[in-house]
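ok so i was messing around last nite and threw this chain in just to see what happens. nothing serious, just curious
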Amino acid sequence: MNAIVKWVACAAIVATVGCQGKDTTPNANPIEKRIKIGFLVKQPEEPWFQNEWKFAQQAADKYGFDLVKIGATDGEKVLSAIDNLAAQGAQGFVICTPDVRLGPAIVAKANGAKLKVYSVDDQFTGADGQFMDVPYMGISAREIGGQVGQALYDEFKRRNWTIDETAACCVTFDELHTAKERTEGAIAALTAAGFPAAKILETPEKTTDTEGSFNAASTLLTQHPEVKRWLVFSMNDEGVMGAVRAMEGRGFNADTVAGVGIGGSTCKVEFEKATPSGFYATCLISPLRHGFETSESMYKWIKDGVVPAKDIRTKGYIITRENYKKVMADQGLDE
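result:
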């Protein structure tokens, strides 16, 4: 009996060892963890950010990672979103911050949660006011402003307007670096082309939406009733549309106003009107690269350790009622 018991015990030991040797070594065949990436935007209701999310999702579908889309409209929501991503097991996030001065807090929070950070659209600034050493994709703001200024001057000349009756309305938002770069670029191009600097009238807006620009332009119109024809530019499409609406309320129309925006997300409303408005053109900036490429780069950073370029600037395309459908289709914006 003892011999039989010993034989059974030995057999059990052999079987157990055999099973362990076969497939129970820790991490012998680990299941690869699915990559999860956050994409935080400051104004989730805006078409620009909706399109960034759309193209980021295309990257997620192509590479097979999970994309978490979060609207983070203030500092508290940004920090809470980072905690949320960490709790979900994300490994990194792309963010357009609601305030560039949040950069140090965002980076510190991300580092504490071992999350990689890629900034898009608005570049982080440190406590010293200098740009932070964080991967970034934005637009070539001054160059795009220059395209706007040149387009305005070309239209001024094409219409044969006289300088005596014409002024340029510049709706500014200098608190945001990229906004200041855009309007300054437009001013530089206008003056370089020969438009008098004294006829470029700046008016600050309190908010970067249509209402903020409407109010800013209304003040300027009251101050300068002598102007008969207006060129209009700002940091975005909304800045130009607000000014155009204010001018329409004072009796101006497409024959006496030529506005060129920046963005392209909301201009279709103007271009599709049966009767043209004073919103003549815009410099389309493509959310395709800002959404797809940042997400793609974040994925490769996490998966393969390929650190994204520190500073990428994308270009713009001048579009009007005549060519916007083709250009937008080329940029994946024809839906």
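not much to say yet. Residues 1-30 have pLDDT under 50 and may be disordered.
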